[in-house]
Specification:
With about 400 residues, the chain is of the alpha/beta class. It is built from twelve helices and 13 strands. It has two domains: about 35-240, no CATH class; about 250-405, Nutrient germinant receptor protein C, domain 3 (GMP Synthetase, Chain A, domain 3, 2-Layer Sandwich). Helix 8 packs across helix 9 (about 315-340) and helix 10 packs across helix 11 (about 360-365). The chain is globular and about 100 Å long. The model is unreliable at about 65-80 (pLDDT under 50).
Length: about 400
């Protein structure tokens, strides 16, 4: 009996020792970092200045984040803005960031970065090498959104952007309202490395919130088109008008309205496309490459400032056909620009060959750069208008003035 009692005591002692060791491992406070010792970077801008790179960081001021436009301060972050800008130059992205840390009393933290901005000049020389540090250091978020800026990114990050708490947040929200799937760092790098498709990134610029005679004017940020790349180099910027149709061809359009004049009279009918699908089919015979872009679009009528009666079935079909023709014309023009002027395959015509005709792609891949501008593209859109609105006939127009044909 005595030996059994001793064995139980030994087991209890062993269990107690294990529990004590576990408690030592669970105590994780030795390397803690207080929030007051951290500076959270919400947005970063990268520009080229001579042979140096300027990195601008937008750092959140916690004492100002209670409400947009607050004027109080606290916790050592007093002031009238909810953010602070730190901007330094260096021989590389990381080099400039290191210089910035020397001028910031708190440890820079990038885990909450929302956006990464590239200035236009820097993007034209190539962006791949600048992205290495973002993947190498785990703290950087690959889900951060990437945009281009007309001019320097420093100027855009200094915008008033009064609707949001800081400009980086406004840039993020504009991205999500502009594209179904905004370009994150991860998506951008995938498109650079993937065969048969080139990257495309939204372009942002500064704009005043009213005419020159408006008192207390503010600087705001707006989407100003699409930046198209050849591999990792920016080759051109597509304006807002054509970029809307390119987004349709990419199946990325979020809000697209098309304005159609009536067969008689003045004014416009506004058709809002709510969804669309795209299928690209390649046809190859030797070095003769043709592409057919099949599109299916659904939309609603948002406005009818004409006297044209779209409640008639034949008139509604006419309107659907006119919208399809407008898509065909404008998307065709946009494709000619990116093919012949910028040599950028943002629609993924090459990718359609990679997926649909892989053996043909292996054959033409070495000469794809020369063949791509000559590819003949046919656009085949089908438009269906689902809803013409609560008012079926032109509102405020007398019956005898309404066009039925």
């Amino acid at each position: 009996m005595k030996s059994k009692s001793d064995a139980r005591k030994v087991r209890k002692a062993a269990v107690l020792c294990c529990l004590l060791l576990c408690s030592v491992l669970l105590g994780g406070c030795w390397d803690r970092r207080e929030v007051n010792d951290v500076a959270f970077v919400m947005g970063t801008g990268l520009d080229k200045e001579g042979d140096q790179y300027r990195v601008t960081m937008q750092i959140a001021l916690p004492g100002q984040l209670g409400s947009s436009g607050s004027t109080g301060g606290g916790g050592g972050t007093s002031g009238t803005k909810s953010y602070y800008l730190e901007s330094k130059t260096g021989p590389s992205f990381r080099g400039a960031s290191t210089e910035e840390q020397r001028g910031v009393s708190r440890t820079l933290n990038y885990s909450h970065r929302r956006v990464l901005l590239f200035g236009e000049e820097l993007a034209r020389e190539g962006i791949s090498k600048k992205m290495d540090v973002l993947a190498r250091i785990p703290q950087n978020r690959l889900s951060s959104l990437v945009v281009l800026t007309k001019g320097s990114s420093l100027e855009v990050l200094q915008a008033d952007a009064p609707i949001e708490q800081y400009p980086a947040e406004m840039i993020r929200e504009l991205n999500y309202s502009y594209m179904k799937k905004p370009r994150s760092i991860k998506l951008l790098m995938n498109s650079i490395l993937q065969e048969g498709i080139d990257p495309v990134v939204p372009v942002m610029s500064l704009v005043k919130n009213g005419p020159d005679n408006l008192k207390d004017k503010k600087t705001n940020i707006q989407v100003d088109g699409l930046g198209v790349f050849r591999q990792d180099r920016l080759t051109g910027i597509i304006d807002n008008h054509l970029s809307r149709f390119l987004l349709l061809g990419m199946e990325q359009a979020k809000e697209t309205e098309i304005f159609i004049p009536p067969p008689k009279g003045s004014g416009y009918l506004s058709v809002h496309l709510i969804e669309n699908s795209v299928h690209i089919k390649p046809h190859i015979r030797g070095n003769d490459i043709r592409m057919t872009i099949h599109m299916n679009c659904n939309g609603n009528v948002r406005e009818d400032e004409t006297t044209f009666d779209i409640s008639q079935e034949e008139n509604l079909k006419w309107l659907e056909q006119q919208v399809a023709e407008e898509i065909k014309k404008e998307l065709g023009e946009a494709i000619r620009v990116i093919q012949q002027k910028y040599h950028s395959d943002i629609l993924g015509l090459g990718l359609a060959i990679v997926k649909g005709l892989p053996d043909e792609w292996k054959r033409i891949k070495p000469q794809w750069d020369q063949l791509y501008p000559k590819v003949e593209v046919t656009i085949d859109p089908v438009v269906h208008i689902e809803n013409i609105g609560a008012v079926t006939k032109p509102f405020g127009i007398k019956k005898e003035h309404i066009q039925n044909e």
